[in-house]
Write a structure and sequence with these properties.
heterodimer, A: 7-stranded antiparallel sheet, disordered C terminus, B: 8-stranded antiparallel sheet, 5-stranded antiparallel sheet, 13 helices, 17 strands, globular
Amino acid sequence: MPDPGWANTVPPSMAPETQAPPPARAGVDARAGDAPERGAGASPLAPVGQEALVSALKGLLPAHALLWRAEDTTPYECDGLTAYRERPLAVALPETEEQVAAVLAACHRLGVPVVARGAGTGLSGGAMPHAHGVTLSLAKFNRILKIDARARTATVQSGVRNLAISEAAAPHGFYYAPDPSSQIACTIGGNVAENSGGVHCLKYGLTLHNVLQVRGFLSDGTPATFGSLALDAPGLDLLSVVVGSEGMLAVVVEVVVKLTPKPQVARCVMASFSDVRHAGDAVAAIIADGLIPAGLEMMDKPMTAAVEAFVRAGYDLDAAAILLCESDGTPEEVEEEIARMEQVLLRAGATRLETSTSETQRLKFWSGRKNAFPASGRLSPDYMCMDSTIPRARLADMLLAIADMERRYGLRCCNVFHAGDGNLHPLILFDANDPDQLHRCEQFGAEILELSVAMGGTISGEHGVGAEKLNSMCVQFSETERAQMLALKSAFDPQGLLNPGKVIPTLHRCAEYGRMHVKRGALAFPELERF
Amino acid sequence: MNDILIGLAERVRQAAAAKAILRIRGGNTKASMAGVVSDAATLDMRAYTGIVDYAPTELVVTARAGTPLVELERVLAERGQCLPFEPPQFRDAEGRLAGTVGGMVAAGLAGPARAAVGGVRDYVLGALLLDGRGDLMHFGGRVIKNVAGYDVSRLLAGSWGALGAICEVSLKVLPMPVATTTLRFDMRQADALETLHAWAGQPLPLNASVWWRDTLAVRLRGARAAVAAAVDRMGGEHIPDDLGNAFWAGLRDQRDEFFIEARQAAERENSALWRLSLPPTTPVLPSFLDTLIEWGGAQRWIVAGADDTLVMHRAERAGGSAFRVSGGVGDGAGYATPLAPALLAVHKRLRASFDPDGVFVPGRPMRF
């Protein structure tokens, strides 16, 4: 895997919280009826030493499946967000479900945090280790257990790669629809943790919409199954919170996914626009016409220039923005849809249209979009990828606002959008060796996220909050809402041992962040209009 | 903030302070399914009504809980859009279609298209929740892709009031299908199931299916060309559109012949109507009094003897669950597959975190 070149340093103000692990409540029975006080996290207690931890885990795993020497645990110190690094006390690589349960039970007894890890491709530091904790790698859970063509499901272990599912399903004429850009490397367990999307989710849904059942363990090692092979299960739909919970509610060992019949044909229209407003309006016009494209992506001019230099696909370098609009299905319906798409795009002011006539040409259209990140990596020593979502109607407003921010912060930004979903990936270019650039980049990114919330959007569309966007959570959610999310975590994990310190910021942190903001005279957040 | 909302929150705070209980109600059309507790005061959500925001090009609508479902669907239809999961509309005691948006989410019920397009929770994007402390909280949002924090709004679909009163919801909506066609086939149950599995594995615009008494009906929905091509390929007898549409609506709202007969039988003959949620490839379950199959085999309505606990065992053995809708002995309606112990503990803690004083009396499926 080439180094994708994520931003690789971080100022102290953005650094994740270092938390001492919560107390081991030895002998205290967490009774089912206990009402967790909303927002009451477990209070810190002296961390367990490495020696005690290793001796507790040693008997539970084969010798090669437990790492604790610095040279062995260092490769696990970060995920795709390399700016955030922490070495765990130990890395456990269980090979059986019994071993997973035993490690969890031991950590539960000792009050040691556990951070589950798949391929480590996440972009928000969700799998960053805990300094006083165990990193639980599910890398060895890499078997595809069953492809059931009649039921159109695949039962796979959580460490199976996303693309491997589609490859295994291909002989049956099926594929697994969600396709995050990292799909050759990322695992289904990681996809479940992040509720990953991809370029086709407007039509085919997110991970949640394509997963039937998730099996794993609660933080104390108790087995638990969420969802079912049927379309619903008794009780609350816990699957809908477990998916996207960033490893904070349960550890997943097996996933049953839905398979989708492979479309017979896919074709893509590439449209150029001389004005980003026209391109934004074209996106709205496509939806207004009743079309749901299989993919609908936008690149701005700087991004197009960057990818053209990288892939030489013949992109229109004069365009202010380029839209890629795809239709898939039977040959008949694709022909019908492509004709409608072309009409709508022309009416919306497209200055140039090109429609793929072969699979080779379609993939060429996509090659630039798919290489947006590495192409940006060639323009600048570092870049920071943002991931907010806004209402589609505000795409042009956002692009113009970003152009203004580029001037104010003195940094360049390339933009790729999952336009169909309103999900933005602005890539802010900077040099991390220059502390001032780094600082400006941080402010630039935070301003994009806050503007996204102000526009009625969200701080993360698909990369997750992890350790990276804790501050921005303070902007999007009120104190009560954040406290309720912490209480929800406690309902699954009363001791707060699974991936603690991620996703939901503490009250204290938000208060600090608020103060910092007022001082800088930036957006005050508590009273933002939003939903 | 809206006065009605302030009033609702105040009601809950007072109830919590007085250790009183409240039953959340919308149109009261699902009261019998929810197992009404008659001595509880009601928190009536109907006054909090209206569509807050609807931008068709965003494919998102935000409505207050008390908005009548018929009103929401009418507004969407004016712009050529719909709720693809076809929430059933039931009648209240006076025979009116009084169901509300809040009730639709709280019950989490979906119609014939469920297997093809997803259920209520798949379309919930955000919600404003009034919890048992009287606090108002937003979860999720108004955009399609959103992974900021836990997705509590989706958890509310089918929660039957267990976590609080749903005050507003944002829903993903979709364009109405360009073409719809209904086909009918004479087929025995086992053949119908196999045929449905085979079709579902092909790129066909299969949107709904139902099998009852050796008749299989399927609905195709999608691009005109796709539906036309599928009709050629699948054969069968074409049902005229008006008849077909009325038939699917009856099935959605559970007022089709099967349901009328099954409910009458449950009252008269000491039998019971069950809903089984099963892995779709579960084979034919033999020897019940009557069976209607939807969702490509994943939802099976069973009429069985009143004391027939075999239904429950069979559903569980197949990897699914059972819910007694009406009739029966013992626990009567609402008798259902229990939660696994580990999940039961999570449910109890979860409910307590939203409603520590137990102010809200949830619907029967959520009484654990």
